[in-house]
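Quick illustration, no need to memorize.
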Amino acid sequence: MITLNDLNPHLLHAQYAVRGPIVQRAQELEAQGKKIIYCNIGNPQALKQRPLSFLRQALSLLENPGLLDDREICDRYPEDIVARVREILKKHPHGTGAYTQSPGIPFVRQAVADFIARRDGVPADKEHVILTDGASKGVQAVLLALLKNPNDGVMIPIPQYPLYSATLELYGGRQVGYFLDEENRWQLNEQILTASYTKAVSGGTHPVALVVINPGNPTGAVLSRDNVDMIIRFARAHSLSLIADEVYQENVYDRSAKFHSFTRAMWENGVRDVTLFTLHSVSKGFLGECGHRGGYLEMRNIPDDVLAQFIKLQSISLCANVSGQLATYFMVAPPQPGDASYETYVRERDGVLNGLKRKAEILGNGVNTIKGMSVDVPQGAMYAFVRFLLPPEKGVDAAAMTPEEREQYEARRDSAYCLALLEETGICVVPGSGFGQKAGTFHFRTTFLPPQDEIESLVQRLKLFHEKYVHALEEA
């Protein structure tokens, strides 16, 4: 029988905190009848966000095109959706049950290119677009392609979404972490970037790419245009490819903030010699269609022979799932004014985004009233990275530990905190150590996706728990 010793060590070492031991314990408690508030992962529809009518109506007809022959049934759908589905089936008569071209259905890729061109006012080429099973598959494809040698590394933000560290581990690449500037609303800091790059090079690592998540996961920060411009200059100066994870681009709530795409910034800066990979997904934004696993990867400043290798890589998996490809189409080509479905679409879209804005404010403002806790009210995305204070343990000198020992010690402490929070309150969050954090600090990541009454309850329960937990440590 196969044992752990027979498995790839890269798999054994990979960690993915958002579905780790605390989540497994939450599922056990839920099976025992305990009410759990799942705030561990950005899975909107699992947390009672309703799917948008437009997308689901269109997909239902595409999955069962025989319904188009029934006039009575068609009359129940907005006429623009019926017309759109008929047109799609003319362009793609094989429907959802057949393989597509490896990079994706051509008219969907063209719609993605048109979306980018409208959004940014720049030329966009569908031949540089690959449709993927969610943004995650695009990330994995780029990292696999770029990691040529054992000493190659990728610069990733700390805190970071653990997809990046886990994928680097699986592929044998080196993680080059750079700390986001918590004191400056989690923007990137050029001095920190330079120090991280220099340290990596001096240690024998060859950085090949820089990952930026904007809006941020887990921080909820939205990068300023000046910050985006600085990042492009840095990548160019150090011959790094840029990987821009922009899956939360519709999730901006702070009126003083604005999403700035790397595509537009690079074009307006006249930069044509830095390769840019951008990613988007139907899982986030206001759609929340995580289960449909739809998304795209767009590539810029990339020669044709290199592009061909990415197409070949995609062909090894044949193609992305077709329903996800079509969901991506509806994301980038939504109803327009005058369409019968437009008013409902706008009402539902704005309802989701306004609800997320309210819940971000309730969570952020509520947490900041708790003694020993603080957080930047999320400007965007779906998360908050809450900082909390714990008293030092008696007889333990963390400052005397090696960096590795201290990291492990502090990870045990924030994991113990989050597990106790789960056991006592039913609130399921992810320890900050699962995303990375500076030595001597403790955080946890929470979503603000649950219904508003649950977010309000979460803040109240969190306050009572934190006060009790800290008091117990002080009395120990």
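The chain has 16 helices and 13 strands.
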